[in-house]
From TrEMBL:
InterPro entries assigned to the protein according to its UniProt record, in alphabetical order: AB_hydrolase_1 (IPR000073), AB_hydrolase_fold (IPR029058)
Record keywords: Hydrolase
Chain ranges of the AB hydrolase-1 domain: 3-218
This protein's name: Alpha/beta hydrolase
């Protein structure tokens, strides 16, 4: 199966470099996406531009792909299911929930000169970054791509209720499945609470398992693709 991989904020397609060969070895066709404005130098890119890239990849897949969204890109994966509910086989969300209709995509940190810079590690101390050593942190920070303002502040628009029929796998890295269930039940994600097919998978890692647990993550995604 084609597995489309969408990394979160400040990351381009190379974030999946350690996951791609593992998925290929398991018999799948992984496609790591580099989004407009996050790796291609298009600082004026919008959320709609990024979604168009994801939807184009869904349309280009020979069959129904598994669409994987990490962190904030959980919203992009879900937007793809909304845009192509008949074409997406399943959505896997790693360490994130989709934003609700009408909300900003990822307006989390200050925007300066039209971009949202990586804010450093202070906001992520604790479970998020516990398994990243200093070398990994330095490498991440050096490679971080500023997120265009029109992406971070782009408004999420969800229109097709057939998205609720697309199966969803919530991969739980820095939090547990029990916590995820509790948050969703409490209203953290109004959309996931309405998903017809929702499952949870635990992964003992921090927020960036593609860097710290690539083999384990690949096996989880491969199982999601075939189950």
């Amino acid at each position: 199966m084609d597995i489309l991989l969408i990394a979160g904020l400040w990351l381009d397609g190379t974030a999946w470099d350690d996951v791609v060969p593992e998925l290929a070895a398991l018999g799948h066709h992984p496609v790591a996406l580099t989004l407009p404005g996050q790796g291609d130098g298009a600082a004026s890119a919008t959320l709609d531009d990024q979604l168009a890239t994801v939807v184009a990849a869904v349309d280009a897949a020979p069959g129904k792909p598994l669409v994987v969204g990490h962190s904030a890109a959980a919203t992009l994966a879900w937007l793809a299911a909304d845009a192509r509910p008949e074409k997406v086989a399943k959505v896997a969300l790693i360490g994130g929930f989709p934003a609700a209709d009408g909300c900003a995509y990822a307006d989390y940190f200050a925007v300066e000169d039209g971009v949202m810079l990586f804010p450093g590690w202070s906001p992520f101390e604790g479970a998020d970054a516990a398994d990243l050593d200093q070398q990994a942190r330095d490498r991440f920070a050096a490679a971080a791509v500023p997120v265009p303002e029109a992406v971070a502040k782009g408004v999420v628009r969800l229109t097709d209720e057939h998205r609720f029929d697309v199966p969803v796998v919530v991969v739980c890295p820095e939090f547990t499945p029990a916590q995820a269930k509790e948050w969703i039940a409490a209203g953290e994600s109004s959309d996931l609470s309405r998903a017809a097919h929702l499952e949870y998978v635990d992964l003992d890692s921090g927020h960036w398992p593609m860097a710290t647990r690539p083999r384990e993550l690949a096996h989880i995604l491969a199982k999601a693709a075939t189950s």
